[in-house]
Design brief:
By secondary structure, this protein is mainly alpha-helical. The chain is flat. The longest helix has 20 residues, at 68-87. It has one domain (3-87): Up-down Bundle (Acyl-CoA Binding Protein). 67% of the residues lie in helices and 0% in strands.
């Protein structure tokens, strides 16, 4: 299976992660997803009065420098880890 197809499959699987998934884990997935689909951060950091948007931006910025392929692979690995943790 091509990396792009596998990435898209795991992006769908990520939508069905249990509600008990920690926000910190979701932010990691968000950052990797944005890096894989958009590339490097292309917006300014949201202000202090937008804590949710700011956290998402920070998560994306944290993986800046990864290639699209690295971000996709890391995303797939992270979703697998979260699925295993949820089923344990």
């Amino acid at each position: 299976m091509a990396l792009q197809e596998e990435f898209e499959e795991y992006a769908e699987k990520a939508k069905s992660l249990p509600p008990t998934t920690k926000d910190a884990e979701k932010l990691i997935l968000y950052g990797l997803y944005k890096q894989a689909t958009v590339g490097a951060v292309n917006t300014g950091r949201p202000g202090i009065f937008s804590p949710k948007e700011r956290a998402k931006w920070d998560a994306w910025k944290a993986v800046e420098g990864k290639t699209k392929e690295e971000a996709m692979n890391d995303y797939i690995t992270k979703v697998k880890q979260l699925q295993e943790a949820a089923s344990a």
